[in-house]
Amino acid sequence: MSNATSAHSVVEPSATTKRIAGIIVVLYAIVTMVPLAWIFMTSFKSPPDSISYPPKLVFTPTLEGYCNLFTTRTRQTPEYIQSLGPPQSTCDEITRSRNMVIAGPSNYWPRFTNSMVIAFGSTFLAVFLGTLAAYGFSRFRVPLADDLLFFILSTRMMPPIAVAIPIYLMYRELGLSDTALGMILLYTAVNVSLAVWLLKGFIDEIPREYEEAAMIDGYTRLQAFRKVVLPQATTGIAATAIFCLIFAWNEYAFAVLLTSGSAQTAPPFIPTIIGEGGMDWPAVAAGTTIFLVPILVFTILLRKQLLRGITFGAVRK
Amino acid sequence: MAEIRVENLRKQFGDFAAVEDSTFTVQDGEFLALLGPSGCGKTTTLRMIAGLELPTSGKILLDGEDVTFNRASARDIAFVFQLFALYPHMNVRRNIGFPLLSQGVPKAEIRKRVEETARLLQISHILDRSVSGLAGGDRQRVALGRAIVRRPKCFLMDEPLGTLDAEFREVMVHELRELHNRIHATTVYVTHDQHEAMAMADKIAVMNHGVIEQYGTPQEIYNRPASMYVADFIGSPPMNFLRFRSGLENGATSVTVGEVAIRVPQVHAAREPGELALGVRPEHVRFSDGAPLRGAVYGSEYLGTNQIVSVETAQGMVKARVAANRGFAIGETVGLELDSEKLSLFDCASGKAVPSSLYAEARHG
């Protein structure tokens, strides 16, 4: 193979460039995957394996972490355990081998459900409000539009911890502390600025002629928005939704401060999983692994939109 | 179908007057072209008729009904956009049927009318295709289909051929006029292309800086331009101007350009001495060895059937359209004879045409 015979394009990168780029991408992917792989592996280790040094790469996988994640257990005398009938499940068996019995379910599922409700609820609200606001900013002559947009963005400029105390006091006063509604409103408020800015960019790119055509075709502006603008903004809406969801899903600072009981989300709950004599790392890792699944699924479902979305419409035409 | 009346229409964007005091009527079934350079206010005028823009002052009447401040959706008009604005997420059939859907027409009826329209425009074979893969001409036809399927009161078109290539534009000009002849829809057509306007329109309104300079049939606009602007904008090459200083008496039948007396249509107004311009179309210039108006050949453009010869005279450059077979040497001195019945006179200060017997014909039909 000689390069002299192949036509050389200025735009198209050469084979060598592509190979180097490929190697860099693979290396980067490996580096970012290491923590994930670590967590995934830890979730299948036994507690002694999880803290052995040097870390074990080869180990006998066990479901103990998952069992411990979903249950609460009490220590019993071997005689008592002997007196019980045969184990009902794999978890039962594992638990008994540690001289314990399952006392009941843990709080993981309720916390996980809280996370789902709060993250998806706030994402829906933020994207819904953001789409309407972005459309308004994009299409109408809003007085002081630039100042308003800057003001909206400025809500993102400080770290959550800076406003945590006032919000804590405010929420306590309003009775919103430790409620799902309170968390949904809070995450919506934080995400709506991102949504407005992202979506305004997408909507700006949709030619006005489409709505004008629809209005001339006999539709009201709202109908034109629904039937013509929305279908074309789906890419942007999907990308925005992913960003909002990831934020709300992973948020820790507000969650740890404002929720403690019934509305607690998974992030502050997972580190509180304590086993006998220290952290139950396999259970923590199992909780984290399961916690990653919804975002993974959501991202895979919307990955086409996400790819087009994060290139900000550059690929659209 | 309907008559469109526009009365004293005015649109102000901040300090900029996009349209000033426009008044015109498009008769039922008539094809009006709004012609002018970009930024002259023609599109703004169209958008106000459509209801996409609200006028600062003035009135728009559709069939006698004041619709000035009605919503676009309530006016029952169709609009063909420059970039067609076909909904990208719908196929051709749904694009064309979209206006009917808003009126609550039953599904079967929509299907029937979409298919009728497609047959009329000869696009039946692409009905189920996606609009994104269509060629320019087909997009154009789909946009037209979406406009006519509803049988609206009138059609408004904003440079619909602007993005097509030259060859295809010619075909579409023909098709559009054909279509108009068949359905006789009142049409307002915005263009900056004089050929399109001349070839299609029953009436042309020439606009400049927000003002309608002249409103008339293509023949009137071409033969009796109301202003130097119109004379210069229409025709290719445009009308020649021979500038000279003189006064005019009412009833005069000749003017003295430089040293040369030239016969003109009888002047119907007097003018104080000032700068005037004698307007002559290139095809009304002949070469004649004995003619007193003389100039030197500057160059020529060969156009196949004829040629455009530029001659430098003391009063300015004159372009003549003459037979292609005659050869000219650059610098050769030639005599020019002007077709005296076809000449226009302009007052350079105002730019307006001086009334004459040629222009009087226009008013009396």
Automatic annotation (TrEMBL), chain A:
Residues spanning the membrane: 20-41, 116-136, 148-168, 180-199, 228-249, 281-302
Organism the protein comes from: Mycoplana rhizolycopersici
Entry protein name: Carbohydrate ABC transporter permease
Native organism taxonomy: Bacteria, Pseudomonadati, Pseudomonadota, Alphaproteobacteria, Hyphomicrobiales
Keywords: Cell membrane, Membrane, Transmembrane, Transmembrane helix, Transport
Domain ABC transmembrane type-1: residue ranges: 112-302
Protein family per UniProt: Belongs to the binding-protein-dependent transport system permease family.
Subcellular location: Cell membrane
Pfam families linked to this entry: BPD_transp_1
SUPFAM superfamilies xrefs: MetI-like
InterPro entries: BP-dep_ABC_trans_perm, MetI-like, MetI-like_sf
Superkingdom to which the source organism belongs: Bacteria
Membrane topology: Multi-pass membrane protein
UniProtKB/TrEMBL annotation, chain B:
GO MF, one annotated term: ATP binding
Matching Pfam families: ABC_tran, TOBE_2
Membrane topology of the entry: Peripheral membrane protein
SMART domains for the chain: AAA
Domain ABC transporter: 4-234
Primary location: membrane
UniProt entry keywords in alphabetical sequence: ATP-binding, Cell membrane, Membrane, Nucleotide-binding, Translocase, Transport
Domain of life: Bacteria
Subcellular location: Cell inner membrane
Family: Belongs to the ABC transporter superfamily.
Record-given protein name: ABC transporter ATP-binding protein
Organism: Mycoplana rhizolycopersici
Higher taxonomy: Bacteria, Pseudomonadati, Pseudomonadota, Alphaproteobacteria, Hyphomicrobiales
